[in-house]
Amino acid sequence: MELKNDLLIRTAMGEAVERPPVWLMRQAGRILPQYRALRGKLSGFKELVETPALAAEVTIQPVDELGVDAAIIFSDILVIPEAMGLPYELIEKKGPLFPKTIQTATDIEQLQSGAKAATELHYVYEAIKITKQELNGRVPLIGFAGAPWTIFAYMIEGSGSKTFSKAKRFLYQHPDLAHQLLQKITDSTIAYLHKKVDSGVNLLQIFDSWAGILTPELYRTFALPYTQQIANAIKRVPLTVFAKGAWFALADIASIECNVIGLDWQTSPQYARQFVDKVFQGNLDPCQLYGQADEVKQATLSMLESFGGQHIANLGHGVYPDTPLDNVKVFVDTVKSVVYQPDHQAIKS
Ligand code: CP3
């Protein structure tokens, strides 16, 4: 299927484009009344994730409602631990919970991995196929996975945490076991992402949401090599790596063979450019969208200006569920109103 709007893909591949493409991390979700209405009729989040026709429906909602330049398949990074044998729950207003966690060598041995784990996630592949059909080439479809370190952190910790100190403790106390578990997660993730590409996604993003709590040394030892393995194994579609809070590791991240680096709102493009010669994605502070509409517009324009070209416009992390929808629209419309000058640098509205 040919893409009618392939701005995201051309930008990710480093081509000169007419304007930056725009989408938002977590665009499919509670910011949209259509999502809340559907979600209210269901037993919970997992029913939505595991019912392909419904997952496809909420994936497309932001394309219709916001006019973004990409869809991202509605799912969660926590489906990988579940496929490996560690089911998750989502507790309303609290977040993820794993009733069982990984603590011992036996726990790790008992986990499924690789193609066997990836096969469990048939509902994701089905959702991708339905979404592709219904999108009918309107915009590219993004597939994603958690980075091995971030998945590891949830599997050890058992829930969200401010410090993930149990997961970090495991790195210091059991480094060999940590590597074994990280390798099993990596093998499963590679098989999973291949199947996502087989099913039709046009670009992949790796979310390393907890990279920012590591030391530079821990990042280099327990995070970087596994994200690198994924990048080396999958070169069929462009790849974005978003390691939140990992400004201290940008020189390492620059060595990953991917196309795009996601930046959070605390890392300026000027700072990141010292280390990275790739396309950037990001990075407006999600909380900026709580401001007045004209301030949102000005902040979006100045963000675009700070990146110059070679940029995929996004927030610096997922959009918060209570963000005013009108300001999300101001953000998207402002990006779509600009054009690059012929030198691919300056921008006018
Ligand atoms: O971006 C999108 O629109 C696609 C959907 C998507 C979800 N989760 C849906 C979701 C994506 C890309 C994710 C990734 C994800 N999940 C990450 C990485 C990105 C990040 O935020 O750093 C992480 C760490 C998770 C784990 C997770 N899932 C948490 C911490 C939570 C609870 C917090 C919350 O927002 O409620 C979830 C639940 C979740 N995943 C929801 C959605 C829409 C909310 C569930 C609901 O509808 O009640």
Can you offer a commentary on this structure?
There is one protein chain. The chain is of the alpha/beta class. The chain has one domain (7-348): TIM Barrel (Alpha-Beta Barrel), CATH 3.20.20. The chain is built from 16 helices and 11 strands. The chain has helices at residues 7-12, 33-40, 45-50, 52-66, 79-84, 105-109, 114-119, 122-135, 148-157, 165-173, 175-199, 216-233, 250-253, 269-273, 293-307, 325-337; strands spanning 71-72, 89-91, 95-97, 141-146, 203-208, 239-243, 260-262, 279-284, 311-315, 339-340, 347-348. Strands 1-4-5-6-7-8-9 form a 7-stranded parallel β-sheet. The relative contact order is 0.14. The model has no long low-confidence stretch (mean pLDDT 97). Coproporphyrinogen III binds next to strand 3.
Short description:
It is built from 16 helices and eleven strands. Strand 10 and strand 11 form a beta hairpin.
